[in-house]
Amino acid sequence: MIINGEKLDLKELKFADYVEKMGLRANLIALELNGKIVPKSEFENLILKKGDKAEIVSFVGGG
């Protein structure tokens, strides 16, 4: 699987665990998985699998 251009040699990865490990806040990110936007309501149970390509975008406030 590839997450934000970084190849991870894993068979599976629970997305919520990855978010926590990376110190991200689920309410402040968007996920595109294999070219489709994933609703936040699916983050908790989402399993990324070998061959998946994910892009995570964080929202930043400021002016």
Put the structure in a nutshell:
This is Sulfur carrier protein ThiS. InterPro entries: Beta-grasp_dom_sf, Mopterin_synth/thiamin_S_b, Thi_S, ThiS/MoaD-like. The chain has 63 residues and is mainly beta.
How would you portray this structure in words?
With 63 residues, the chain is mainly β. The protein has 1 helix and 7 strands. Helix content is 11%, strand content 38%. The chain has a 5-stranded mixed beta sheet with strand order 2-1-7-4-5, with no helix packed on it. A hairpin with a 2-residue loop joins strand 4 (29-33) and strand 5 (36-38).
Provide the fold topology.
Elements: E1 2-3, E2 6-7, E3 12-14, H1 15-21, E4 29-33, E5 36-38, E6 47-49, E7 53-58
Beta-strand content estimate? 35-45%
Give the integer mean of the pLDDT values: 94
Share of helix, binned: 10-25%
Strand order of the largest sheet: 2-1-7-4-5
Low-confidence stretches: none
Q: Ends: how far apart?
A: 35 Å
Number of helical runs?
A: 1
Tell me the major beta sheet. 5 strands, mixed
* Number of strand segments: 7
Shape, per Cα inertia axes: globular
Radius of gyration computed on alpha carbons: 11 Å
Order of helical and strand elements: EEEHEEEE
* Class computed from helices, strands and strand pairing: mainly beta
Protein name: Sulfur carrier protein ThiS
InterPro entries: Beta-grasp_dom_sf, Mopterin_synth/thiamin_S_b, Thi_S, ThiS/MoaD-like
